[in-house]
Amino acid sequence: MCPLKMTDTQRAEYDLNKETWYREFVEILGDENVLTSFSDRLAYGRDRWPYANLTYRFGKVPRTLPCAVLMPGSCDEVRRVLKVANRYALPLVPYGAGSGVSGGTVPLNNEIMLDLKRLNRVITIDPVSGIAIAEAGLNGELFEAALNKRGLTLGHFPQSLNVSTIGGWLSCRSAGQASSRYGKIEDMVIGLKVLLPEGQLVEVRPVPRRSVGPSIKDLFVGAEGTLGVIVEGTFRVLPYPKRETVHVVGFKDYMAGLDALRKIMQAELRPAIVRLYDEFESAPKIKDFPEYAQYPCVSMFTFNGLEELVEVEERLTLRICTSSGGMEGSPEPAFRWMEHRFESLSAKPVFEGRMLDTIEIAAPWVALSDIYEGMRDAIFSVREDAHFGAHWSHAYSDGACMYATFIIPASDEAQAAGEHAKIWDRAMKVCLKAGGTISHHHGIGYFRSPWFTEELGPAHGLLQTVKNAIDPNHIMNPGKLGLL
Question: Once rounded to an integer, what is the mean pLDDT over residues 346-356?
């Protein structure tokens, strides 16, 4: 029996040294970088997908444990591992820091985990051209710190900054909290090195712009490891801002706030952070600030850059807020949020007997209120006692991201899992019907695959055709993005 198809009990009694491919991996990486113990495999059996945390609380795993964990330390070692895996048709799951929330790195059928965190070097920082090159396994916080020491910034600040990697950002098309000014990861990356399943190196040369056919870079950014392994990225970087200011504006309702955000972005202003909270998410942030009592939906703004630019952008933005019925109050709610902006909050309630999950979508301005109301109704149709709240961030001239949070009781595993699935299905149907996209920056992974297939329609078949050509043995993260 193939060890990749064994139960955990059978696997515990099986000696992997009997397998030629296993001995080849050890020869390439060394014993210390091939992990097979139960505790190691258990640690790689989930990412931060809330459903995975729920199953762990009840002493289970969301799908399976990996057969083994490989930890290459160089591009050449990744290449050699891929050649062995492809020769024996061994499925691999590229793994960064496991911070994804859609099951993108959950092993479905005892796949081998390919942990890339040893590829963690900053290779080059060029302040003249404004570019930086780094390996895919580098922690995001460490990358930003290295740039800061040179007076630079990437401007990419996802909530998972200190528990995610560059390769993870690229693989899931990450967006940071300052995306309204700096853009998303696909706007920042200008070059890639990717190893295909058979070990060939594909290099996208870093240049300011190109007109040389379709974008090969964008074939891999967002592919979540289904087409190859990203081993290196080249990024645009900018001078660290000379000044930053912080403002909080209250609105009488979320519709007035959305109106202000739309006008700000369509006026070509670019606050670094733009966040509008509904009444439910605003309440705990403003409970100590009575001036917001009649303005229960708050929006947070930060402006950064050159002194004169900050002054102009904040003045014009606040003018628009006032014209939309906004009232500027104490900025303290924003400072309190900023103290905890990189903390992960979803796991704690799950291990306390509740189920917390987040749904982030994006849609045109005209559809956002319908999606908000429809998604809220969908959640309460499953659990009348559910908690629901939302905020809008990552604003654009044509629309924005809506980030909804729901919490339901979860003392019974089967009931909680069933209600969780119903909520997601109804929420996704609301989003698709209104013309939104089912994911703005969390990616698709395993969990969102059915709705991803629906959103893409015939284009999903085109994506499968591409995968069949690049990965004929289907060894790269099978089952994710709805692909073989």
Answer: 89
